[in-house]
Amino acid sequence: MTHAPGAYTVQVAREAALQLDELRVWWTQNRPSARPTFEDALASVLASIAEFPNRFPKHPSRDVRYCRIEKTPYLLFFEVRSSDHMVTVVTAWSASLGDPP
């Protein structure tokens, strides 16, 4: 993934990737006419995270930040390693899934 100078590299942890795949399938089956599409909304938020991840709020009790995927009830939780300009998405969550991670 290529970014502008100073941008962070974003990776998605295996568990988060599985969660996002499940969310993508559900969204595609149940919201087929939604705009932006789930894929577009996810790509947009990942690009925003890569640009400046520290602008997003910190979780009150964990060492992660979070942001909403546009037009969805889903949040991405991610860790920021400023020393090597790396962000790792660790989970994708919605209140419909139960207690927050």
How would you portray this structure in words?
The chain has a 4-stranded mixed β-sheet with strand order 1-4-3-2. The chain starts with 8 loop residues before the first strand and ends in an 8-residue tail after the last strand. By secondary structure, it is α+β, with helices and mostly antiparallel strands. The chain has a single domain, classed as RelE-like (YaeB-like fold), CATH 3.30.2310. The mean pLDDT is 88.
How many H/I helices? Answer: 2
How many structural domains are formed by the residues? 1
CATH architecture: 2-Layer Sandwich
> From N to C, what is the helix and strand string?
EHHEEE
Alpha-carbon Rg, integer: 13 Å
Helix-strand blueprint:
Layout: E1 9-12, H1 14-30, H2 38-51, E2 65-68, E3 75-81, E4 86-93
Parallel strand pairs: 1-4
Antiparallel strand pairs: 2-3, 3-4
Put the structure in a nutshell.
With 101 residues, the chain is of the alpha+beta class. The protein contains 2 helices and 4 strands; from the N terminus they run βααβββ.
Index terms:
single chain; 101 residues; alpha+beta; YaeB-like fold; four-stranded mixed β-sheet; 2 helices; 4 strands; 31% helix
